[in-house]
Design goal:
32% of the residues lie in helices and 20% in strands. By secondary structure, it is α/β, with parallel strands linked by helices. Strands 4-2-6-1-7-8-9 form a 7-stranded parallel sheet, sandwiched between helices. Strands 3-5 form a two-stranded parallel sheet. Its main location: cytoplasm.
Amino acid sequence: MNYFVTAIGTDSGKTLVSAILTEALHADYWKPVQAGFPKDSEAVEALLSNTTSKILPEQYVLNTPASPHYAAEVDRVSIHAKEMTLPFTKNRHLIIEGAGGALVPLNDKEFVIDITNNFPCEVILVCNLYLGSINHSLLTLNELKHRNVKVKGIIFNGPSNPSSESIIVKHAQLPVLLNIKQEEKINKEVVRKYASIVREQL
């Protein structure tokens, strides 16, 4: 199974969630588009404990930490979702991390979520909670539904807000795969802890 990790915003916690999912399934990890340094693949690799997972090379590595469409302009390259090819992961799970939120542009026509059109996968949406996050979460979910994107479930990341979480879940009608608390440190032990919890939901 391939899981595509996207989020309601840029700093919602996709890389941490990707590391947890990769550890849970002993999956391979791939970030098709990397904009800026250090690379998220390096962060994921540093958080893994298992020796089975492979970190697959990015298809696009851009120098500017910005929206991929702009970072690509700066580097004078073109990004096309339709040209992205799934790395070879025969009989293995693959965790694919998007860039920014679901509707971050890759170019003047395509968005990050359009990468999911290229190969079979289910989306896992990362939601962090802040003033306005209910709106951002439901708008993202409505867009995914409109595009007929299959969503596996939601992962809440960061300080909990039960009222916000319940209203998002009520309208989303999707399972909550995991609740990640505000951790003092993010390390391999924390990733293993959450991996053991989410494994049964995947």
